[in-house]
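In practice, a research group might receive sequence data for several interacting partners and want a quick structural hypothesis before committing to experiments. The following worked case mirrors that situation: the sequences arrive first, and a predicted assembly follows.
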Amino acid sequence: MDSDIKIRAENVNFYYSETHVLKDISLDIYANQVTAIIGPSGCGKSTFIRLLNRMNDLIPGARMQGEILLDGKDIYSPRTDVVELRRRVGMVFQKPNPFPKTVFENIAYGLIINGIRDRAFIRDRVKQSLKKAAIYEEVQNRLNENALMLSGGQQQRICIARCIAVEPEVILFDEPCASLDPISTRKIEELILELKKDYTIVIVTHNMQQAARVSDFTAFLYLGEVIEFGPTSKIFTVPEKKMTEQYLAGRFG
Amino acid sequence: MIVERKLIKIKEGLVRFATLAESMLGKSIKGLKEKDKFLLTDVIEVDELRANEFEIELEEQCVAMIAQHQPAGKILRTILMISKITSTLERVGDHAVNICGHSLYLIERPQVKPLIDIPRMAETVMGMLDDSIHSFVEEDAALAKDVCERDSIVDGLRDQIIRELITFMTSDPTTIERSLHLIRIANNMERVADLSTNISEDVIYMVEGRVIKHHVDDENQE
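A structural hypothesis for the assembly, expressed as tokens:
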């Protein structure tokens, strides 16, 4: 396997009961790159990204076929430790969802449930994570305030810091800016570009322009199929498929 | 900001392209002066291909920037200018190649006259090209204006070269063919001066928002 490939999806099919949601998806996610998944509502982009850290496991009647390889190892094999998988593949959701706890506790949470007790270590890691998430300056004097007191954009960066604190390898973003204003959106986008130095990033967005701005690779999904996948600069200037062209031009979706 | 960082990278590419175009021009004249066939063929066989690659690459970067970032205002004007300057530089490269072609003919034959005005003209033209690119990068309208004013010096040199060569041709018809090649070299250089002036006019528009195109002379009289 190519060492630059962090995650490889091979012939992935996914069903919600009888509904065939993802159809034979094969896709490579490259290490330290931002891969965007775009497509109209209901095309399966969120379903796909949630498969990458087994977030769909508990949905009744859901069924998956095919393989998803993380560093060449199938994450759906019975030997996979799902908790460890989700530490390695973190996720940031559409709506900021900090715990109703202090800023500090939010970031420290992942460390504590992983059994870390060294207070100095935790303090240091919290600070580093907040810094990496570009929020430290804004909250350094508010670490003991409830995270829910922060603005939406700040809460989202707290969630990113919480994700970073457990040192993941991949970060999945599911519409991370959908509930944010343009300025917070811009901050998150800048942050994503900063984060790709250390992490592999997959972002699902219905905002085509966001995909264009932040990603290196783009996959266009339509009705559960990958219509086109390639470098973002190419997809947005000379797409190969007519359907991609039409979607970019806003003719459907 | 993402867009600004990308813009800086594209500008750096443009400066490298400009350096190549200038060196092509420099080599075309040096090759003529020093009868260096290798230098002249190098421009035609190596540099020209690189120039074409530069043009395609920069053009693609500009298009990708517009498609991916929808720049507005000054960034948009700058990107459009880079795209324009890119095609201009490609044409400068073509002129250098033309000069090399004529030079290759001339270096195999006796000189019509010592080369004095042509190297002087080349020096002025290369300075104009260099300054026009700098005025763009530094957004220096004063420098751009200075480039526009130098255009008439080049026109004067070209006219002088032609006048002189006409006297040679009328007194000795065997010099006609060689003289015509020299005249074409002068004309090619004069075109590069025009192209540099065009770049500078665009810079003035970019910085000051004034369109001075097509009536630089009116302005000089004011």
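Before designing any experiment, note the following. Chain B is about 85% helix and 0% strand. Chain B has a mean pLDDT of 91.
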